[in-house]
Amino acid sequence: MSNLDRIKQIKTILNDTPDDEFLNYALATEYVSIGKLQDALVLYNKLLAQSPLYFATYYHLGKLYEKLNDSIRAQKTYEDGLIITKKLNKNHAYSELRAALDELLY
Fold this sequence. Notes:
This protein is an all-alpha fold. The chain has one domain (3-105): Tetratricopeptide repeat domain (Serine Threonine Protein Phosphatase 5, Tetratricopeptide repeat, Alpha Horseshoe). 80% of the residues lie in helices and 0% in strands. It has helices at 3-16, 21-33, 37-50, 56-67, 71-87, 91-105. Helix 2 packs antiparallel against helix 3, helix 4 runs antiparallel to helix 5 and helix 4 (56-67) packs parallel to helix 6. It is globular, with a radius of gyration of 14 Å.
């Protein structure tokens, strides 16, 4: 299945469940993979606003900001994600965010 097929399929399902966290996350990720970075940015930010505890978003949004050469927003996103993953005791996600932040800063 191609990225465009997956995007179409996700959008169809989202018509019935527009606030589904995983589907919005998946759609944003598909947008990144085909270079629709602004569309992905809108979705990731919407997801964080609606579901700040959906911790996987922080890593991917941070990476997207890095692709967009916005290191300040990337750093803030990683730092926010570190707070959330620590609060949720998500050690693996915390480690990934810590590594991404360290790579960005050093």
